[in-house]
Amino acid sequence: MTLAAVRPRAALLASVAGAMIVALDGTVLLVAQPDLRDDLGATVTEVQWTSTAYLLAVAALLVIAGRLGDRYGHRRLLFVGVLGFGAASAGIALAPGIGLVIALRAVQGVFGALLQPATLALLRLVYPADRLGRAVAFRTSAIGLAAAAGPVLGGVLVTHWGWRAVFLINIPAALAIAALTLAVRTPDVPPAADRRFDLTAGALLAAALGALVHTLAGIPEEGWTGARTGLGLLASVLLGAALVAYERRSARPVVPPAVTRSVPVTASMVLLLTTSGGLFGALFVVTFFLQQGLGLDPLTTGLRCLPLTLLMIAGAPVASAALGRFGPRRTAVTGQLCVVLAVLGLSRPGPAWETGLVLAVLGAGFTAVMVTATGTVVGDAPPGYAGVVGGLKQTAMNVGPALGIAVAAGLMPLTPSAAAGPGSRLLPVTDAALGQALPAVAALAALGLIPASLLPRRRALARTPARVVGCGERQ
Do residues 460 and 130 lie in contact, with contact meaning Cβ atoms separated by under 8 Å? Predict the structure, then answer.
């Protein structure tokens, strides 16, 4: 087998597997948290920090990790990242107390940040423009599949072996991905103008993103008017302003001018942020309504949301074909309109079949935007900066959901009230609450129509052949 044949297949498998282990880890943990709390005697706040610590580390370091990949090689960063991710998972599985679990989740987040930009950058390095779109679509479907399978797999593991099993499964997966990464061969990349890294700029960026994500994650509890929310947002703005001022004077900015001047890349980042915010904000409201408002159990709730998952998985190849026929701009605008209309449709409760149909439209629209924006980000990355662009993309995908949930939570009752009845565990998530929160989430998603309209009409990226050269299978 020639090197040219091995290169894209190994890179695609490594990229998909690396992205899936991160997606799977996040969803299986949600199922494991109640058992973790009982076993370790943790408080609800401590259990929440097992997710928050990971999210903070990832969000703060993604762009920096991408920059390091551009300098030292993305294959190397993926190898180190996945091994560190597996080692941290092993430590969590053996941890005797909640404090160590939280600390190791932050460590796991550091290594997760290292591997995520590399999974996208590898595709950019080994796939020519006319075959990149299908590879991105396959990766998107795989992520959707992993996220959907997470709660089911987590339920089985926790039921039979306890919460520690959801971390133990990461160990063989990480070793397999590391071995696969060794088989990846990447072509030589033209050197960027300056690959040195400014530690001060990196620290300011990490602090600004960390403060923002931490603040947004606390809004469901604090609300938009809480003192900690105000201080956190102020700190984020001040740190962001300091970063911009410093970057303008820096000879080695952490986000190079070649990236910030690219309209397609910048527009795609904003589009991903608003679209992911719309999706996760809507899911936050809908799941609260189904479980706390209607009293459905988690399994029934998951089944109600199954059309969303199915369309996210099956829609990626269709989105890739639409991208090839209609171009990025029309595909992204259409997908974004579907997201906005679906979120508005969910604001009016209806029968189960109607909710399923609207969720299917939401999943199809989100996937169309994901495939288009991700392909544009990766395809338009300036030579030598695929990693930092991948890091920016992943950052948008981490900040967006936190923003969407914050917008939704600020307009919903999240504590029991007298209306729920004495001792009731149900929240007063009524039809009126849906009518308040979801239009605001739809407005957030509608902002994405602006960057979607700035994407190019046609791209060589979109002209994909009928057959995919990746895993040797048609998609």
Answer: yes
